[in-house]
């Protein structure tokens, strides 16, 4: 049996958006390796819950990590993929999109343009 990959758990990071069933983190590493990070198309969807969840996830990332690089760890790949390549970008080269240890960072300029509310001290959902 293959050894379970190592995965940093970001203590204190919110697990998701309460009452909505949207997850920000995973509980355990995938036995087959980390789900690859890749940019997913984000359809124009102003004022939808999906847009608010993306903003809330970026808000959590910003208030937990700021402008410093951070390890992918237990952050949910599906949620990251909606921001990846735009608001969240690789912080290292070469970048391994299938590694739990991959370093990411927030592109603050793009993030503030896409989700200005995510950078406020308090965000209302």
Please, could you describe this protein's structure?
The protein has a domain at 48-117. It is built from three helices and five strands. 24% of the residues are buried. Strands 3-5-4 form a three-stranded antiparallel beta sheet. The chain has 125 residues and is an alpha+beta fold. Residues 1-38 are annotated as: Disordered.
Which helices and strands appear, and what pairs or packs with what?
Elements: E1 16-17, E2 22-23, H1 49-65, E3 70-71, H2 77-83, E4 88-90, E5 103-106, H3 108-114
Antiparallel strand pairs: 1-2, 3-5, 4-5
Question: Gist?
Answer:
This protein is of the alpha+beta class and 125 residues long.
- Taking strands numbered 1, 2, ... along the chain, how are they ordered across the largest sheet? 3-5-4
Helix percent band = 10-25%
Q: Give the quaternary arrangement of the chains.
A: single chain
Which class do the helix and strand fractions yield?
alpha+beta
Q: How would the global form be characterised?
A: globular
Average pLDDT metric: 93
**Count of helix runs:** 3
- DSSP strand content: 5-15%
Q: Low-confidence segments, ≥5 residues, pLDDT <50? A: none
| Rg (C-alpha, Å) | 14 Å
Region (Disordered): 1-38
């Amino acid at each position: 049996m293959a050894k379970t990959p190592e995965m940093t758990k970001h203590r204190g990071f919110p697990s998701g958006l309460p009452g909505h069933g949207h997850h920000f983190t995973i509980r355990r590493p995938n036995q087959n390796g980390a789900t690859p990070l890749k940019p997913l198309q984000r359809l124009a969807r102003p004022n939808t819950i999906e847009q608010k969840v993306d903003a809330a996830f970026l808000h959590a990332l910003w208030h937990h990590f700021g402008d410093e690089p951070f390890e992918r760890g237990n952050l949910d790949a599906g949620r990251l993929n909606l921001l990846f390549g735009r608001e969240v970008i690789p912080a290292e080269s070469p970048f391994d999109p299938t590694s739990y240890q991959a370093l990411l960072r927030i592109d603050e300029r793009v993030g503030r343009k896409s989700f200005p509310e995510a950078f406020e001290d308090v965000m209302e959902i």
